[in-house]
Amino acid sequence: MLKLIETELMKLRRRKLLLILLLAALIMPFFAMLLFRYKGETGINPLEFYRWSAFGYTLFIILPVVLGSFCVILIYEEKRHDVAKQLWIVPISRMSYFFSKFFVVLFYSVVFMMITAIASAAFGMLPGYIGFDGNHILYLFERCLETGVITAFAILPVLSIATMTKGYILPSCITLIYALLGFFLMNTNMYLHPICSTAAIIMRDSDIPGLAFSQTINVPFALLCIAAWDIVFILLANIALKKK
Amino acid sequence: MNDFVIETKQLTKIYGEQTAVSKVNLHVKKGRIYGLLGRNGAGKTTIMKMILGLASITSGEVDVFGKNIKGREKRVYPRIGAIIETPGFYPNLTGTENLEIFAKLRGTAAPHAVKNALEIVGLPYKDKKLFSKYSLGMKQRLGIANAILHDPELLILDEPTNGLDPIGIAEVRDFIKELSAAQGKTILISSHILSEISLLADDIGIIDNGVLLEESSMRELEKKNRKYILLQVSDIPKTALILERQFHLTDYSVQDDHTLRLYDASLDMGEVNKVLFMQDITVMSSLVCNDTLEDYFKKITGGEGIA
Questions:
Q1: Which residues in chain B touch residue A240, judged by CB atoms under 8 angstroms apart?
Q2: Is 0.80 topped by the overall pTM?
Q3: What is the DSSP string of B205-251?
Q4: B17-40 pLDDT per residue, tens
Q5: Does A88 lie at the interface with B, CB-CB under 8 angstroms?
């Protein structure tokens, strides 16, 4: 498996688009900086700043869309360049292939959230909107790491759909619908959609000011929701890969 | 236990209502070069894909190394190297990087496997040129390098000389021959170029519209390319009558208004000329000829020739 993951990482060399996608990690920290500059406030609660820079739209929309696009690119490019055909006559199991892709998505997701964390801290502290506080920094990095890991699991259904389909248009559209659906279901039922459940896990301590949920946070339910979706889509990917 | 590395039994592939391959019985012997010859769309690639488990089998069986293949058979892949259609690689990587990925995936233990494979096909090792900048010929060479990277016993090469220049074609041909002769590798190669197959193959299978029309060794095929006498005469009906009545010859064909093909090369042409002359038939020429492989291909496919 490690060998497969290593080769997956080797395949990413010189992929500028994937680096450009990482720039999306800077969007919300930058907008948070602009927002607080507009408000003219300094010395604010760091969690208030991080809510905007790392735990708001980055968590609900930006990261799922970026990861979904990453999944589509990973799978579609191999089909487009006819590499998949070469891969299928190499003695690797198709599910190992699928999971190696997933681990790359996981790695990318963590890198994305670490960039978000660094940018959040930098854009908050350098202009002086928030002061340096080791505990808050630790909290930011810890939650960003969690977000990176759990969102990768939440986006696994998109990876599975990308594996099942031939082109890139359908999985790209599904990525958008999937991310938006997660965002809109947030206030209805957090345990229906993996992205809502990811948010529920990240916000489990209800310690981020300004974020309120209509339901009580239940971490086991949220984990169950993500696991159920993942199991179903892993099975579907297995069936689709066997048919190919 | 037979000595076939690949054996197909009544192999059939149907796409929707179209039969791409119909009841093909292919026999590839160990250490031989088997040329699968047919026009574009004849079903060559589909057969190769079914052998490799890249396409499902509608009916029939495929045995590779004596093992019945049902779908992807991971156990036999380390023993097979293949190119199917145009070889696909990662365009953002160099040739060496691409091969390093496949070497890792295959668990190729030989330390210089990538370098050796590239050297064999005449591509530079650790070159900075990306695969996306490769010419078709270079892509094809890289495909061959990938197929031989892990030193397989069986090579399945689908039109490996596509896109190569004449020198490249000759080089690949020599290299394939050497692999078979020096290393005893079994090679199944497909082509729509008759001359290519005739120069390479030990055994040949002719496929048309998904049907394997003929399977034999090149030696046998050469024998089958019958000698005949091309006879040009002034009166075809009268000549035919004389040949049938006096020489009991029925194995002949009329080529045009003045030309006959007599497939019994043992005929005493002196005697034939004499009899025809006596019957007031002018013999304009009589030549002993051999059919080319192309003529043979035309004859058995019942259609036009092949390049």
A1: none
A2: no
A3: EEEETTEEEEEEEHHHHHHHS-EEEEEEES-HHHHHHHHHHHH----
A4: 888 888 889 999 998 999 998 888
A5: yes
